[in-house]
TrEMBL record:
Keyword Phosphoprotein found: no
Pfam short name (any one): FAD_binding_2
Organism whose genome encodes this protein: Pigmentiphaga soli
Protein name, per record: FAD-dependent tricarballylate dehydrogenase TcuA
InterPro entries in the record: CobZ (IPR012831), FAD-dep_OxRdtase_2_FAD-bd (IPR003953), FAD-oxidoreductase_2 (IPR050315), FAD/NAD-bd_sf (IPR036188), Succ_DH/fumarate_Rdtase_cat_sf (IPR027477)
Ranges where the FAD-dependent oxidoreductase 2 FAD-binding domain occurs: 15-439
Gene3D superfamilies: FAD/NAD(P)-binding domain, Succinate dehydrogenase/fumarate reductase flavoprotein, catalytic domain
Cofactor(s), names only, from the UniProt record: FAD
Keywords for this protein: FAD, Flavoprotein, Oxidoreductase
Length: 470
């Protein structure tokens, strides 16, 4: 494909070309530049929307063997590993998982060097002060710090450039085809890093994977993760890993926008009450485990319900125990009135609540531990934090499936090199972030782990690309 000669010449000739503009891409670009490479970063979004899904993040899960200024106690390798085995159900590459965990211990000092600031460790009901380092100002502040560092170091950043094809010759990437506005052009470098996300913003691809139910999904993050280069790598013979229906999927407020609802659209009170479907029936244990370990299963659970919608119901005892929501709860003085306002079958919801209340066993409620408050005698038990719904007013939130990122991706080795179906691997092509997260996340999720994968593999990919370009 022939592109505009002037643009091709202007943007070609760099040592390393990074495709993407979020955490993984920025970590790759910064690391490659630190290694002495000249670096070009192509971000498909306008500058105001730069950063991809990373803008909506808050923290990074990291191993540490002793307390730090931002983390309490210790979070050793084996505990981290077992936590991830549990949430993934063993659907992970154990070697790469341990690789990420071990490398995570080095992340926060490096991040600080590039301007990222952290807030003191959190207490309360999030249970994350020991396992996760929180960014001061959230993901947007992190992204801005990295872009500022990139500018200072001399990384060239071009916005609104969509890479639409990868041209390979002799097992190596020869050049990329890109588009800005109505102009298509070729761009080449000595080595390349793909850190351009999954396909969660591609509504047609979601429907291809899920069927018509995907029409009821909401996208928590950027609208720019269309999976264009993932599809191209599939066509080019890359070895692919993951199930297209698996991803980081969360129950979010059904009133959230189609794109970029972010963390603010999440509803975190599930473990403090009950969840019913549109038929007014419970369908899963709301108290299975601590919320940071289990919140990401609820997107898939809601996706499996009639109409892909559910409703979280709490009473006044839960108020103040979970992250405030952007959209106000539907409120009523009786369960029947609340069901009517939520347009649910009133008699069935009342029956569900009455049966649940009768099944709650005596116990000592403590949301900071897996307490002994449970139900007994129900078809779907609640194993922890079960309290009667008996203190008015009552509150309800409509829930939809919110997709954060998808797990279908390219296979990589521990050096972030992309593996091909024929067993070969290109010596100048690397991947980081969501486009390869499925190597480690076959299913499930734990808070902050996507940022861990992106940070660790972004740095690995940047180092590898710089060496390949030397």
């Amino acid at each position: 494909m022939k592109g505009d000669t002037n643009v091709t010449q202007e943007l070609s000739g760099y040592d390393v070309l990074v495709v993407g503009g979020g955490n993984a891409a920025l970590c790759a670009a910064l690391t490659a530049r630190e290694a002495g490479a000249s670096v070009l970063l192509l971000e498909s979004a306008p500058i105001a929307w730069r950063g991809g899904n990373s803008c909506h993040t808050r923290n990074l899960r990291c191993m540490h063997t002793a307390p730090t200024d931002v983390l309490t106690d210790a979070y050793p390798e084996e505990e981290f590993y077992q936590d991830m085995l549990k949430v993934t159900g063993g659907q992970t590459n154990p070697h790469l998982l341990r690789h990420v965990i071990r490398q995570s211990e080095t992340c926060t000092p490096w991040m600080r060097k590039h301007g990222v600031r952290f807030q003191p460790s959190l207490g309360g009901t999030l249970h994350l002060g020991r396992t996760n380092a929180f960014f001061l100002g959230g993901g947007k502040a992190l992204v801005n710090a990295y872009y500022k560092s990139a500018q200072r170091l001399g990384v060239r950043v071009e916005y609104e450039v969509e890479v639409i094809d990868i041209v390979m010759e002799g097992g190596r990437v020869d050049h990329l085809v890109a588009r800005r506005g109505g102009q298509t052009f070729n761009v080449s470098a000595r080595a390349y890093v793909l850190a351009c996300g999954g396909f969660e913003s591609n509504l047609e691809w979601l429907e291809e994977a899920w069927g018509p139910v995907a029409r009821n999904f909401l996208i928590r993050g950027t609208r720019f993760n269309q999976g264009v280069l993932l599809r191209k790598m599939m066509e080019r013979g890359a070895s692919i890993i993951g199930d297209p229906t698996q991803g980081h999927m969360v129950a979010i407020d059904a009133r959230a926008p189609l794109y970029d609802g972010g963390i603010a659209s999440r509803v975190d009170c599930v473990s403090l009450g009950i969840v019913v479907n549109r038929e007014g029936k419970r369908f899963y244990d709301e108290g299975e485990d601590f919320w940071p370990k289990r919140y990401a299963i609820w997107g898939r659970l809601v996706a499996g319900q009639p109409g892909q919608i559910a409703y979280s119901i709490i009473d006044s005892k839960a108020v103040g125990r979970f992250m405030p929501t952007v959209y106000p709860a539907v409120q009523a003085d009786t369960i029947a009135e609340l069901a009517a306002k939520l347009e649910l079958p009133v008699e069935q919801v009342q029956k569900t609540v009455d049966e649940y209340n009768a099944a709650v066993q005596p116990g000592t409620f403590d949301h900071s531990v897996q307490d002994d408050c449970r139900t007994a005698g129900l078809e779907v038990e609640k194993t922890h934090w079960a309290q009667r719904l008996d203190r008015k007013p009552f509150y309800g939130y409509p829930l939809r499936t919110g997709i954060t990122f998808t797990y279908l991706g390219v296979k990589v080795d521990e050096n972030a090199r992309i593996l091909m179906e024929d067993g070969s691997m290109s010596d100048n092509l690397f991947a980081a972030g969501e486009i390869m997260a499925g190597n480690i996340l076959g299913k499930g999720y734990a808070a902050g782990f996507g940022m861990t994968i992106g940070t660790v593999f972004g740095r690995i990919a940047g180092t590898g690309a710089a060496h390949a370009a030397a």
